[in-house]
Write a structure and sequence with these properties.
Length: 165
């Protein structure tokens, strides 16, 4: 690896941080032993700013480029989400049907029709549908993650001190 910038973050396809690097797992470092790195990161990612500061924690996270709406250190999003009715778009499920008696088992247009031979008994002893049979909200969380491949992120603990252009 070429000499990195101090505080540079790289992806690695192995399970450890190379010498001079640390995994981006949110660990706290002592300021007195890492003054140059602290001067770059401050307490953006955590720490008390007196004795400790934190490295970025990218476990289970996707990095996003900083801008005015997404400042450095901001964490957002969730791995799972439970929809509420207000998040479900208004919609209908229409059924196309004909009042005529069916004349073919596979009619064009695939319309439902009254069967030529009764297949149901008289309309007595009807049962109600079980609750949730046609429910639009099961109240359970679903996965909310894009496809992913897990790698490790490492941050340089030493290297060239970066300066703005």
């Amino acid at each position: 690896m070429s000499e990195p910038f101090l505080g540079e973050v790289r992806m690695v396809a192995f399970s450890f941080a190379p010498r001079g690097w640390a995994l981006c797992d949110g660990q706290l470092l002592p300021i007195n032993q890492n003054q140059a790195l602290f001067s770059l990161l401050g307490t953006v990612y955590g720490g008390d700013g007196v004795r400790t500061f934190a490295l970025p924690d990218l476990r289970g996270r996707t990095p996003v480029h900083a801008d005015t709406g997404h400042p450095l250190g901001q964490a957002s999003g969730a791995e799972t989400h439970t929809l509420v009715p207000a998040e479900t778009p208004s919609h209908t499920h229409s059924v196309r049907a004909a009042a005529a008696t069916a004349a073919s088992p596979n009619p064009s247009g695939d319309l439902l029709a009254k069967p030529a031979t009764p297949i149901y008994g008289p309309a007595k002893n009807l049962l109600n549908l079980l609750p949730g049979t046609v429910s639009m909200n099961g109240g359970q969380a679903h996965e909310n993650m894009q496809p992913y491949l897990v790698v490790n992120f490492a941050i340089a603990l030493s290297g060239i001190y970066p300066t703005p252009n």
